[in-house]
Design goal:
With 355 residues, this protein is α/β, with parallel strands linked by helices. It contains twelve helices and 14 strands.
Length: 355
């Protein structure tokens, strides 16, 4: 990326509802960035002014992803591009971890509010980040970032300069478990998570995502070492459970979709009626979390910003089983990013991503 202007601590001026905030997507060649560009292109209140990438420069997003009608050419993110497109109010950054942070810092130096899709700002503790991902290129910015699970951090997101969009597994897991954590009911939890191949990204590991391996197969991966575990533990600790989380991911033969099954040992016996009341209180007012009366399936939420949750008390074991189903590319990534951008700019959260 070309050299950019020296950073400052500029705070962006408030954008009124009468204006159309101008947005760029940096990293629009990946699955998440391309979908974010698609959602912004059709959004009634945002104006998508540029898409950038570290590859495929000169091609349009719709060339790479014909299902997304985004005719804008992919360009290199540079001083020249930013000068040409004019004022930018917000950016969605879709680069991998470590590569995202310098871009976020550059954009913040220009007063741009940033929604980062990588893991670079999800963990508030620098030591935890570096144990999990390696050296952080811009660790001094961690304190300025807000974790972007809208249903848990709505007020902080609204005024944030940097929003760290959650990982898809943490999104489903936290929404499934939050009512239990808030009630102090989690003594121990095991999360059994399954996801389609799009979760590996456009450049996913060949040995995991090639059709010959994924067809009619289920593959556990990152056993006892998944990078999303500290993220889930961090957020649960803020709402009532500070213990370790056992998390295991599996790749399943789906294009997109994700299911988490959470097995919770409770701090005391829990009856079905209390469980139903806890989840009702937590989510009845939420537009994008649906508490359902039977276990959900991933087809029910495909290409939506909805998370469907279901919880049941097992009288035999005394455990609670909580399920969360999302589309990993939508609520797990890109449409949740739009939900957060709406909130950051004073718009209804459902604008452009209505159920």
């Amino acid at each position: 990326m070309a050299e950019v202007a020296q950073e400052s601590e500029a705070v962006p001026a408030p954008v009124t509802r009468e204006q159309r905030p101008r947005v760029i997507v940096a990293g629009a060649t990946g699955f998440a960035g391309a979908l974010a560009a698609h959602l912004l292109m059709r959004h009634p209140r945002f104006e998508l002014v540029a898409v950038t990438g570290r590859s495929e420069v000169g091609r349009s997003v719709e060339e790479l992803y014909p299902q997304y009608r985004v005719a804008l050419p992919i360009e290199e993110l540079s001083d020249e591009l930013l000068a040409r497109v004019g004022p930018v109010d917000a950016a969605v950054v879709g680069y991998p971890h470590a590569a995202a942070a310098p871009t976020v810092a550059m954009l913040r130096g220009r007063g741009v509010r940033v929604l980062d899709l990588s893991a670079d700002f999800r963990l508030s503790d620098l030591a935890t980040y570096e144990r999990t991902y390696g050296p952080h290129p811009r660790g001094e910015l961690l304190a300025k970032a807000v974790y972007g699970l809208t249903e848990l951090h709505r007020e902080q997101i609204a005024g944030a300069e940097i929003v760290a969009n959650p990982g898809c597994y943490p999104t489903a897991s936290l929404l499934a478990l939050a009512p239990l954590a808030r009630a102090g009911l989690i003594a121990d939890v095991v999360i059994d998570a399954k996801q389609g191949v799009s979760g590996a990204g456009r450049g996913g590991a060949l040995e995991m995502t090639h059709l010959s391996f994924t067809g009619e197969n289920i593959i556990p991966y990152k056993v006892a070492a998944h990078r999303h575990t500290p993220e889930i533990e961090q957020e649960l600790s803020l709402i009532g459970f500070s213990g370790p989380v056992q998390f295991q991911a599996h790749l399943v033969p789906l294009d997109q979709g994700e299911m988490v099954s959470c097995y919770v040992s409770t701090t005391r016996p829990v009856q079905a009626g209390e469980l139903a009341e806890l989840y009702s209180q937590a989510y009845d007012s939420e537009s994008f979390v649906e508490v359902v009366r039977r276990p959900p399936g991933v087809r029910e939420v495909r290409e939506t910003n909805i998370c469907r949750v279901f919880a049941a008390a097992d009288e035999h074991t005394g455990k609670v089983i909580a399920f969360g189903a999302i589309d990993n590319l939508w609520k797990g990534t890109s449409s949740q990013a739009i939900q957060n951008l709406n909130l950051m700019f004073g718009m209804p959260e459902s604008e452009g991503i209505e159920p």
